[in-house]
Amino acid sequence: MENIRKEFESLVYQGIKSHGLDELSSRLLAILYSEPDALTLEELSEITGYSFSAVSTAMKMLSGVGLVDKTKKAGSKKLYFSIQRDMLEMTIAAIKSKNECMVLPALRSLPAIIEKCKNSKDEESEETLKIIDQYYQQMLALDLIFKNLIEFTEKVQKEMGKV
Fold first, then answer.
1. How far is CA 134 from CA 36, 59, 114, 153, in A?
2. CB of 29 within 8 A of CB of 62?
3. What is the pTM for the complete model shown?
C-alpha cells in the first residue's frame, strides 16, 4: 500500500507543481493531500528531508494563501497541518491568490504610472509607455480570464455536488 500512496503522491506533486509553486511547497502539499491525518512541522520535516526552518517557512506561506489549514490539538502546543482534498477548491484558491497578489495591485497602480509616462518629456517615454500599456492590457485580460475561470470552476463544483 505504501508504494501506491507514493505513486499517488508523486502524481499529485506533478499537478500541484504545475501551479508554479517551488519544489518544497509542492511536495508538502502532495504529502498532506495523500496523508489521511494532519501532520506536524516535525513530521513534515522528517518526511521531506528538509530542515524544520525551511518547512516552517513554506507552511507559513501555504497557510497564508489559504492552501493549508493549521490547527492545534487539545493539550498540545504543536501546530498540525492538513489540506482540503478538493482540487477544484485548491485551484480556485490559487487563481484568487494570483489575482489578488499580481493582477489587482497592477490594475490599481498602472493607470497612474501610465499617466506619468504620458506626461514625461524623456525621449524614451514613448517606448516605455508601449511596454507599460501592453502590460496593463495583459493584466486587464488576466483579470477577466481569472474571474471567468473562477466562475466556471464554481459552476462545475456545484454540478458535481448534485451528482
1. 46, 35, 11, 28
2. yes
3. 0.65
| DSSP assigned state of 37 | S
Contact residues for 60 (Cβ-Cβ < 8 A; gap 6+): none
Length reported for the chain? 163
Sign for the CA dihedral angle at 54, 57, 60, 66 comes to negative
Contact 58, 33 (CB under 8 A): no
* Cβ-based neighbours of 48, under 8 Å, separated by 6 or more: 24, 27, 28, 31, 55
Based on the number of CB atoms within 10 Å of its own CB, is 99 exposed (0-12), middle (13-18) or buried (19 or more)? buried
Grid cell for residue 152: 466556471
For 59-93, the pLDDT digits (tens) are 999 998 878 899 988 888 899 999 888 878 878 88
Q: Take residue 33 and report the three cell numbers written for it.
A: 493531500
CA–CA separation, 151 and 145 (whole Å): 10
- Residue 68's nearest CA partner among 31, 23, 103, 100 is 31
